Amino acid sequence: MRPFGDATRRNIAEACAAFARLPDAAEPSALKRAAVVLALTAADDGDDTAFLLTRRASSLRSHRGQWALPGGRCDAGETPVEAALRELDEELALTLSADAVLGLLDDYPTRSGYLITPVVVWAAASDAIVPNPDEVASVHRIALDAIERNDAFDFAAIPESSRRVIRFHHQMSLIHAPTAALIYQFREVLAGRQTRVTDLEQPVFAWK
């Protein structure tokens, strides 16, 4: 159990600071840059710490209806942190400054041509979240206890790839990579483990 408050914020900031990200590639990547946010806030019970997970709107052109962390493509000249904070504001009307950032996780390359940077932020005042209906069908607060269970994640083999497909079990849903991979690495960071996830596969339906 991680009570939502300053002590938990400090502990998570320390865990992020102790995490050594994979170094950037020596050559510029052909992948399009994107960023997502692990926004830490109060859980539904108001006491524990949770992160925000969205269900994408059914009207979107790609990955409609899928579970996702808030985020999107970086605009020209934007850093991943700037893009993450902008997307959080655009999707959920949650405005945070750069001092809310606790750390970054490893960049994750997707089959659809993006290099995603996960940005961990502390969203102290999130009671005024307003989902943008053009982008977000619903928003959910996932308590950190839910991702720290032994049975929260599993790994499956598929004939199309030699890499393992990671799955996060959330209620009656299976959440896949890239979202599941990023949440899994965050879980590992919280536990003080330097676990890499770039070799974890996405399901075939997410390759486009």
UniProtKB/TrEMBL annotation:
Pfam families, sorted: NUDIX
Membrane spanning stretches: none
Swiss-Prot/TrEMBL keywords: Hydrolase, Magnesium, Manganese, Metal-binding
Residue ranges occupied by any Nudix hydrolase domain in the UniProt entry: 31-170
CDD domains xref list: NUDIX_CoAse_Nudt7
Necessary cofactors: Mg(2+); Mn(2+)
Superkingdom as given in the UniProt entry: Bacteria
InterPro entries: CoAse (IPR045121), Nudix_hydrolase (IPR020476), NUDIX_hydrolase-like_dom_sf (IPR015797), NUDIX_hydrolase_dom (IPR000086)
Gene3D superfamilies per UniProt: Nucleoside Triphosphate Pyrophosphohydrolase
PANTHER family: MITOCHONDRIAL COENZYME A DIPHOSPHATASE NUDT8, NUDIX HYDROLASE
Protein name (database record): CoA pyrophosphatase
Organism per entry: Bradyrhizobium campsiandrae
Organism classification: Bacteria, Pseudomonadati, Pseudomonadota, Alphaproteobacteria, Hyphomicrobiales
